[in-house]
Design goal:
By secondary structure, the protein is of the alpha/beta class. The chain contains 7 helices and 7 strands, in the order βββααβαβαββααα.
Length: 176
């Protein structure tokens, strides 16, 4: 627990396990031991869920913890089954001012619109690239990639304005 002014910040590791046996042995897992050593987490703050439960425990955890607390993950994929689930979970955390710390990459996602947008854009871009590669390799024998060339210096601004509901002509006019 870290004190910030009058309030204390708590850490809640969340593990998504493949089966009941893995969940029972989580206390002996090297990653859990490393996280516990670094953050000194009480046993009652550890949340363990088995795959296939639609992240019910994660949703309860987000509802129960307070502003400024931190959920520690071993993988960002634990936040949802697809990009929409991940996006929904991230926005729920950001609305409540809950921090997300991904332990393995040693990166922290700050609860700000910019970092959330950049994560979502990068995740969406990866999905689109994978879809494009699989489509091209299975059904086409083209030498150059499909679609327009990428590289607009306004890419992040365009995505942000699109999400705010602006039309293409309004975005073009606003960005010059």
């Amino acid at each position: 627990i870290i004190c910030q002014g009058d309030q204390s910040v708590k850490f809640f590791p969340y593990y998504l396990c493949k089966n009941l046996q893995e969940a029972k042995n989580i206390n002996k897992h090297p990653v859990h031991l490393a996280i516990n050593k670094e953050f000194h987490i009480p046993e009652e703050n550890v949340a363990i869920e088995i795959e296939g439960s639609r992240r019910r425990i994660l949703k309860e955890l987000i509802n129960d913890i307070g502003k400024g607390d931190t959920i520690i993950l071993t993988d960002l994929n634990n936040l949802g089954e697809n990009i929409d689930d991940v996006q929904s979970t991230l926005f729920s955390c950001f609305k409540k001012d809950i921090n997300i710390y991904c332990y393995h990459p040693y990166s922290r996602i700050e609860p700000s619109a910019e970092s959330c947008m950049s994560f979502l854009i990068s995740a969406q871009t990866q999905i689109d690239i994978q879809n494009l590669k699989s489509t091209r390799s299975k059904h086409r024998t083209l030498k150059k990639p499909l679609g327009r060339k990428e590289g607009s210096k306004h890419k992040l601004s365009i995505y942000t304005l699109k999400l705010k509901g602006y039309k293409q002509s309004q975005i073009a006019q606003q960005l010059g």
